[in-house]
Amino acid sequence: MKPPHLLIVSPALAAANNGNWQTAWRWSRLLRPAFEVTIAQSWNGAPFDALLALHAGRSADSIARWARAQGVSSAAPGLGVVLTGTDLYRDIQTDAAAQASLAYAQQLVVLQDCAPEALPAAVRSKARVIFQSASPRQTAVKPERHLRAVMVGHLRGEKSPHTLFAAARLLKAQPDIFIDHIGGALDPELGRQARACAAECPRYRWLGELPHEATRRRIQRAQVLVHTSRMEGGAHVVMEAVCSGTPVLASKIAGNVGMLGARYAGYFDHDAAQQLADMLLRCRAEQTRTDGFYSLIQTQCASRAALFAPAAEKAGLLTLVHDLLRPTPNPEKFPTHACA
User: Fold this and answer.
1) Do strands 147-152 and 127-129 pair parallel, antiparallel, or not at all (unpaired)?
2) What is the pLDDT of residues 25-71, one digit of tens each?
3) Do residues 39 and 28 make contact, with C-beta atoms less than 8 angstroms apart?
């Protein structure tokens, strides 16, 4: 018997090498062979048994077409909508198309524990948390003669790279703290700023865009990952660091707290470059202590790793798609997580 055919709509395809594509590609692999899976940037009306759309705003046209084809204005059969950070923390506040996507969806998928709190109360019962996953990597031996931090993310405003530039300048006289910055310049002005920072700060390097495997190796070898974003739906790079034995210093925003937990010690206030610089100095000063700050964030990150296991993500996805294929799903069966 032929398996059901699922379409994953992703605003970005392989050439973009961004979070949306990584999610779509990974989900297609996790869902096979139970389902036949196609990835496309939009739905053109071809027959599919279910549609899983990444991004309520950018995939809004496909979402609306699917609902209209079903003849409904809400809870369209077979329609799942996956919410990103810009959906949750920007677009659904003001964008009518993104708001409509919430109503059209039979099921809403969010990627971290704090995300349901950002949804309107009227649609919150449709939401479930499915943490993304990363394959585990053996923790690399971390050299003790220096501290190497890595930040991963294309240079655009939502990622707040200016915070890293400012922290690098605060640390430019520090001889044993190195900063590698990976990501393409989606904003040319931020690319100019990265080059200026590299010229001024000898231990800051902007490496540009790298292949995914090369990026993972750099995360694995680094002593710490820095994540400065102002909005996130559930950053893939955070879980890749956790699953590689590399602790994280992250901006204290809902998307990061939903990944790392409310009690995590490695948060700095968004846009607080001095706090980030001080944390990097503290990591370096206590790098070899078993009772210090660096050891604490290592332990706390390790305690979250099971949430990001591929088996857990696969189980959540299979349950989601089976639910989308049922005529009368019961969303109360899937309570959302607490943000803690």
Assistant:
1) unpaired
2) 999 999 999 999 999 999 999 999 999 999 999 999 999 999 999 99
3) yes
Q: Looking at the structure, do residues 9 and 114 belong to the same domain, yes or no? A: yes
**Cα–Cα distance, 105 to 300 (Å, whole number):** 35
| 110 shares its domain with 170 | no
Token pair, residue 303, equals 């305690």
> Are residues 157 and 301 both part of a single domain?
yes
Spatial separation of the C-alpha atoms in residues 191 and 204, rounded to whole Å: 14
Backbone angles phi, psi at 40, to 5 degrees: -150, 165
What does the DSSP assignment read for 14-70?
GGG-SHHHHHHHHHHHHHTTTSEEEEESS--S---SEEEEE-TTTTHHHHHHHHHHH
pLDDT at 20: 79
Residue segments in the chain with a per-residue pLDDT below the cut of 70: 14-18, 327-340
Query: 312 is written with which tokens?
Result: 């857990």
Cα–Cα distance measured from residue 69 to residue 61, given in angstroms and rounded to the nearest whole number: 12
